[in-house]
Structures
1.
Amino acid sequence: MNFQSYFPIWSKLTVPQQTRILTGLTERSVQKGALLHNGSADCTGLLLIRSGQLRAYILSDEGREITVYRLFDRDLCLFSASCMLRSVQFDITIEAEKDTELWIIPTELYQQLMEESAPVANYTNEIMAARFSEVMWLMEQILWKSLDKRVAAFLLEESAIEGGSLLKLTHETIANHLGTHREVITRMLRYFQGEGMVRLARGSVELLDRKSLELLRDA
Amino acid sequence: MNFQSYFPIWSKLTVPQQTRILTGLTERSVQKGALLHNGSADCTGLLLIRSGQLRAYILSDEGREITVYRLFDRDLCLFSASCMLRSVQFDITIEAEKDTELWIIPTELYQQLMEESAPVANYTNEIMAARFSEVMWLMEQILWKSLDKRVAAFLLEESAIEGGSLLKLTHETIANHLGTHREVITRMLRYFQGEGMVRLARGSVELLDRKSLELLRDA
């Protein structure tokens, strides 16, 4: 599988545009934990994920984190090239959550394509709208959902991503995904454990009663 | 002043495109309080504000509100035509906060222009990125800022919009802007009043000590 089959609007580009993109492209492998983009400090370029998993998060002045969205195979990461959009005025950090293979499309190259090609501009629009929807969903969660539901939803989502019930996660990591403090997560997980929903061990959470977690999430 | 001078990329449209837009356009006057768009229930079209003020907000299942952003003269409201973007999966309600004069661009018409014209698609992109930035700002406020700072910031913003210190606002209205309960706002405003920062009366809040409110906001 090559770039062409991963880039959904490939066939809508002209042949010279296709050539420019293939010439400008670089391939990269990054390890789990690698920082790919750091707020407004850099303008890395657009990242197209071949395989792996990225996490986009924001940081408070005090160093607290919250995961804004995640990117998986075939996803295009736009905000690592946010300098190309004048109106983007927030800083997102992007790190690899798993070992990841990706293509980098240079910002200026993509920007030129966007300016000359309506399909590229509209594709970019759809991606932004999708991320926007994820952020709105997250905001609704933060505003109207209690933390127990959010922790239950997070554990079930993790389990779906990992394809198993034993999750290698520290309380700190969960707190950083959900924008809260470690102590708060520890208390919540102990409550879940008391209810028989999970089993806690050093650096892991095992889901024991998926049904109850789902009931809690959907309540 | 006519539509042409309010639509920033007018000169980037072809003459036939300009004709189509002028033919499809409707003008409307709405009164303060009018509901212009109601979540996914309708696809009103794009709204270009000639004069006035709109508020975009989301609603919880229990009927709680939070203001997501506001639109002023010359702003284009995209999400009243969110049906044109497949990836938009959230419901925004839009109401007139003041008597408002606006133009409505039919959704299908705009969508066609977007598909054929890179400038229109890129302009749409910039607007979405600007709204995205406002939402990210709001999320950071909700996550990391305490409510006293948010109330102070809201009062100062209102005062800047209205151009005066006497704000005609109920506690319920402030709560609906900030996504919280009336009782919480009442308590906070009484605290502000005790500190000499505001004077409360039925249906109004008067800013007495702008400096202290600014210090609180920026702390």
2.
Amino acid sequence: MSDPDQRSSAATNTSPALIKQSLRLWLKMLKTTKHVEATIREKLRIEFDTTLPRFDVMAALYRFEEGLKMSELSSALRVSNGNVTGIIERLVADGAVLRVPVAGDKRAMLVRLTHKGREEFSRMAAAHELWINAIFGCLTPDATARLISILDTIEHSQGLVTGEENDA
Amino acid sequence: MSDPDQRSSAATNTSPALIKQSLRLWLKMLKTTKHVEATIREKLRIEFDTTLPRFDVMAALYRFEEGLKMSELSSALRVSNGNVTGIIERLVADGAVLRVPVAGDKRAMLVRLTHKGREEFSRMAAAHELWINAIFGCLTPDATARLISILDTIEHSQGLVTGEENDA
């Protein structure tokens, strides 16, 4: 649940100055996020010759070692959608993903990472962690924790919490 | 300049737990940003039958009342790019944007909002401010200020500061 000291009644936040401050916060958050995302896209391209949508698909499959139905994969993708079907076709062609039948359901197929796919993703994920740390490591642990707590407050107030809070 | 208490030497932030914490922060920030952006897209569509890229183009032109060259417009767009040329064509067809010659340069044209375009954008911007306030108004002014300050620290450390910090 959200930290009470980060909540306030709607009435206190409707002055024009505070509305402008909310807008300033949002534009800054959007700018920072877009820049970090662009940095990650660029590094994935240069260091692994890959794309963010492909990375996101592999991240989702990595979390579900048994595999996912295509519909489950689409809903597990928290970040970018891209063309999931096209990405899976490429991953299959590259030997990183296998299609496997579902026991007891002749028509359903699961997609899951092969051993090669898991190894490929592990290498990218390790590099990704270091890139993220290079960016957010400028914050003290306390500032990081405060930022997480403030984002939690926003998530809860927006009903964005899904219960599925695993990290990639 | 960044708040010294939010900075730390790289050496303190390389423990696996802190790297995971940075990753958690980034995934949370990305998720919150994507959800807010999706909310704004949806509201623009429902309430104004318009798109986020069109809103962003109009926001940039609104800030530069004298008009912009197409190249200036593209670099002024901080948020989404979309197909800027296509968006301008539509805005011209809708009477919201005018193309005007540049004094002393026969080949150059500026694009600028018409009176109708400025009024249309004003209405959308006022609604946009209220949507943002409905989301971020759950934070106390102090939490908002802290979040802005932490984002500033990240911006400075990333060299994201451009000097052009006007709000839309």
